[in-house]
Specification:
heterodimer, A: about 425 residues, alpha/beta, Rossmann fold, Arc Repressor Mutant, subunit A, 5-stranded parallel beta sheet, two-stranded antiparallel ribbon, 21 helices, 7 strands, about 55% helix, disordered N terminus, B: about 525 residues, 3-stranded antiparallel beta sheet, 23 helices, about 50% helix, DNA replication (chain A)
Chain lengths: ~425, ~525
Amino acid sequence: MVGTTIFSERIPVNRQQVNDAVTLLRRRLCGGLNQPLEQLSLLPEAEVNRKHLHDLLTQTIVNAYNNSALLLGPRGCGKSLVLERVLADLQSTYPERFSIVRLCGLLHADENCALKEIARQLCMENDLSYSKAASFSENLQFFTAMLKECALSDKALVFILEEFDLFAQRPKQCLLYNLLDAMQSSTSQIAVVGISARLDADQLLEKRVRSRFSHRKFLFLPPSVEDAIRLLQDVLTLPTDMNFQHQQYAAAFNMHTKNLLEKESLKSLISKFTDVDLSPQSVLDLGFRALCGINRDSGFLTVANFKKACHLHRPKPKLETLKGLSVLELYLLVVMNRLEGQNREVYNFNTIFFEYEKLCGLHTTCDRYSRQVCQRAFEHLLERELIDYAERFTTIEYTPVKMLISNQELKDGLYANSLCPTILHQWFAHENFK
Amino acid sequence: MVVTDPHYTSGLGVELGAVMGKKGRDGGLFLSKEGSLRQLTGEECRKFLGDRFPGRRDQVDDLLCILGEPSDIFPPVLVYGSPATGKTSIVREALSLLGRPHAYVSCRSCHSPRLVFESVLNQILGHVRSRENNYTSARKCEKLTDFVTHLVDACRGSGKLERTVYLVFDNVELIRDWASGGSIMSSLLKLAELTRLPNLGLIFVSNAGPDTFQLATASREPLPIFFRDYSNEELYQILTMRQPNSELYSFFLKSSLAPFSRASRKVTELAEGLHPLFLKYCEPLLSGKVALNDQGKRELYKYVKGYIQPALGQSFSISEPEKSRPGTDQELKAVCSTRPLAKTGIGFHLSLCSKYLLLAVYIASRNPSTLDDSLFGSGDGVKANKRRRRSSVSSMDKEETLMQEKHLKGPSLCSLERLIAIFQCIAVDSHVICEKSECSQLFFAEESERYMKDVPSNVLVELVTLASVNLVLKSSSNPLEGFPKFRANVDTDFIHKVARSINFPLDKYLLHA
C-alpha cells in the first residue's frame, strides 16, 4: 500500500493520460482475433505449437506438401490466436503465394452452404465474379477446377475449419471427405487446419475420412496459475516506447501493476478465480473487468478493483435470485422442499397450497394469503426459473412441478434473504416440525 | 428536474415503454436519429440514470464502464435479472443518451431467427418498413450464414468502422426454446469473431441467469451484469416517484407497502395493486371527513388497515374495468371476494345435455372406477362399503390421506365408455328428460345391451364441443386401445355452480366432496 501513495503523489496524473492508457489496454484485452499484430509474447507451450504450425504451413506453401492438422484445446486457450499469428506471419513472408478459405462449423456445417462459401471466398480472392444462384454441382466443379488451377500456378490454399467438431457431426462428413481426399492427389496444394474445443474431435471422424487425415494434433492446454498471472501482467503493461506518448506515466503504471500482481492477497484471489476456469481468456476477462473499474483520477489498478471484478464476474445467480424473493415465495419454496423431504415424487400447485394452508393453520403467522395470491407467487417462481414444470398439463394448478435448486442452495438462500421470518428456518430445518 | 415531466416519472419499464415504444419490433435508435439527440458525456449520463433509476447506481456504473468510449469494444455482455428491474430501460437509455448507434431487437416480438436477423439489418441500414415498400425488409435472410454476410456488408457499407456499433438482443432466454436455439445463441455470442468486424458491441438482455443457458462447447462466456431485485426502500422510492401528490402517497405507502411487498416484490404488480387501495385511502379526505394533519393521518392509517388484506387478494387477479373503482365498502369487499375469471360464474350458456355431460366427466375423473358399481349399481353398495371400512380407524385414515392426495393431483383420465355410462345413469337418476337423453333412456331400459353404437351421435357431438372449448381435455389417444380418454378441466367452484343450476346433487356422487 505504501507504493501506491508514493507513486500517485510523485507523478502528476491527468485524466487524458489515464483514458489513453485504458483505451490501449482495453483494445489489447478484448481485441482478440482482430488484433493479431499486437506482438505480445505467447505462453511457452503455445509458442512451441506456433513454431510447429508455422513450419507445417511453410512446407505446404514452399514445397507443395499437402498437410492437415488439428488444433485442440479448451475454449479460450489461444488456438485461434496462434493460428492467426502464423497466418499473418506467412502473409508477410510469402505474399501472393497462398490464399485462405475460412469456414466455421456454426455457419457452414451444411455442405451446400460450405461449398457456396468456399466459392465465394475463392472468387473474392481471385477477382472472379461470384454467382449466388450457382448450384451445388456447379460450385463443386468450380472448386475442383480451382484446386487444379491453384496448384498449377504454384499457389497454396489453406482451409481453416473452426468448430471442426460440428463438421464432423454431419451425417456423411461429405465436406471433410472431399477436402481430405483432394489432399491425396498430386495436382493440388492445400493445407487443412481444424480448430475444435473438443479434445476427441478426431475420434468423431468416419473411417474413410480418418484414414485420409494426417493425425497431426496440437494440444492447447490451460497454463499454470503462475503463467496466467504473468500473462495478465504482460497484457497490462503499457509500452514505454514511442507508441505511447505519456512515457513517465507508463513507467509508473507498469511499476505499480507489477508490484500489485506480486502481492500475496492478489495471487490468492486469482488462484481462487482460476480454480473454476484456468483458460487465459477468463483471466483476461477478469483483467478487463478490473480495468473497467479503474479510478480515472488516481490512474492505477488496485486490489479492490480485482476483488470487485472477481465478485462481478463469478456471480451466484441462484443465490442472488433467492435473496430477492418475497416472503411468500420463500414460504412456497420451503413447502416444496418439505414435500420433497416426505418422498412425494409428484406434486403440483394444489398440493403445495394444501400443505401451505396446513402449516399456516398450525401456527399463527401474518403470512397467510389467499389462493390467488399464492398462485401469482407460484408463477413468479416459475418465471425466475427456480422451479419448472415436470410435464405439460393445461391447467396450472394440476401441472406437476419440480424444484431447480438443491437443499443446500435453499438453505443458503434463506439465510441470505434478510426478510426471511424465523418460523421458516424452523420449518425448513425440521422436517417433522409441526 | 420537474416531477411532472413524463420522461422523468417513467421510473418503470412499462411506462417508459409507452414513451419510447420499447417493445416495438423495429425499435432501435440507429444512425439516422443520431444527430438529433444531445449527447451526454459518461459522467452526466451516469448521474442522470442514477437519479432516474433508484437503486441501480452500481449496475449503471458497471454498464457504462464496460461501454467505455465510442470506439471501445468489449466482450459480449449478458444483462440479467428478474422481470421489471429496469434492465432493458437502462441499457437502451444509456445507449441513446450517449448517442451511440445501436440496433435493438427483442426476441419476444421477433419470434423467429429470420425476424431477428432482418430487424437488426433494417435498423443498421436505416430501412423503415412502410406501405411504400410493401413492408418488406431491406435484406432477406433466413439463415445465420446470410445474416453474417449481410451484417458485414451493412457495417462496412455505413463506413463507420472506427465507431462501435451496438447490437442489443432482448429476452434472449426465449431463444432456448427455438428450433436449434443452442447453436443460434452460441453464434450470436460469437458474432464478433464470425463476422471479423472490429467494431461490434454485443449486449444480451435476459430474465434467466447465465447458468440456465446450457451452451454447448461452441460458446464464449459473456460478461455478466446482474440486476438484483429492489429492496423495500427502493420500491418505496420508485413508487413515490410516479405519483403527483407524493407527500400523501408516501404516507400511504408507509402503511401499506410492507404487507404488499411480503407477497410480491414486482414493481409493476405492486403499482397496479396499490392503486385502488390508494383511491380508497383518499376517499375520506375528498369527502372532508378527515383533515390532512397528523391526527387525520393516524385516522386514515387505521381506516385503510382493514382493506389491505382484501385488496391484496384483488390485486393479483385481473380486474374488470367497470368494477375497478368500487363505490361503497361493501362493493369493495364484494369485488375482493369474487374471482373475476369467467370460469367461476357461468358467464355463458351450456345446453342441459352438456351440463350433464360435464358433470359425468367430472365424476368420472374424480372417482376411482372401482366405486362406480356401488354408486350407480343396485343401491346399497355405498353403505356396505362404509360399514366394512369402519372396522379399523387407522386404515380409514390412511385411505383418507391417499384419497386426499389423489384429489390434489387433479382429475384423472377416464375412458369414453365409462363416461357415457355415468352420463346415462345420472341423466336418468335425476328424472330429467333431456331432449337428447330420451333415446338414451330407451336403451337404458335394455341395460344388457349398452354398447357404444347405441349412444346417440348428438351426445358425442356435445362432448366434442366441450373438448374444443377446453372444458374437457381429450388426451392423445393410444392407437392400440382405440378410444380416446377424457378428463375434466374445470375447478370445484365452477362444477358446483353447474350442478346447482340444474339441481343436481353432485356431492352425493363424489367420494371426496
